[in-house]
Structure to design on (158 residues):
């Protein structure tokens, strides 16, 4: 029988899960291409239980999402390298907190909704207000993922 490491703690409070998402600078999106996993790193925006990504107008990820839009999104934050004994390699560890979010990805078609998605996206990286030209908005896709459920863990945090 599997014995779970005592250093792993589940995170169940929605506020704590959202704090981890907001601290993260990138996320990893897991998709399924037929029966093969496909994972990519993304910059992202987050607001009210929804993740926003931007992408090119064409590419493998969009082909995959058209066939199967179920995704798993991974966020991690609060990384800290430490050791219990500096001379024993296996005692070196990373503290971290992570979130897995599950949902369905959809391509945003409406121009104004794309602009709103871009504003949310940029607010994750800057307090500045941005304007978006029509050609710029029309030359990208915004992918919106409404989160259906989330789980979280922290490793070596109380």
């Amino acid at each position: 029988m599997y014995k779970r490491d005592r250093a792993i703690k589940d995170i169940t409070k929605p506020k704590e899960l959202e704090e981890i998402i907001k601290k993260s600078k990138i996320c990893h999106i897991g998709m399924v291409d037929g029966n093969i996993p496909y994972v990519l790193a993304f910059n992202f925006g987050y607001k009210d239980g929804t993740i926003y990504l931007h992408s090119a107008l064409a590419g493998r990820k969009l082909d995959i999402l058209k066939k199967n839009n179920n995704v798993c999104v991974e966020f991690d934050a609060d990384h800290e390298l430490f050791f219990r004994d500096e001379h024993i390699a296996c005692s070196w560890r990373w503290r971290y907190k992570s979130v897995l979010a599950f949902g369905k990805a959809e391509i945003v078609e409406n121009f104004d909704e794309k602009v709103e998605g871009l504003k949310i996206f940029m607010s994750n990286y800057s307090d500045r207000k941005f304007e978006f030209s029509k050609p710029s908005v029309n030359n990208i896709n915004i992918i919106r993922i409404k989160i259906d459920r989330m789980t979280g863990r922290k490793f070596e945090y109380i």
Q: What stands out?
A: The radius of gyration is 18 Å. Residues 17 and 126 are 21 Å apart (CA to CA). Residues 111-123 form the longest helix (13 residues).
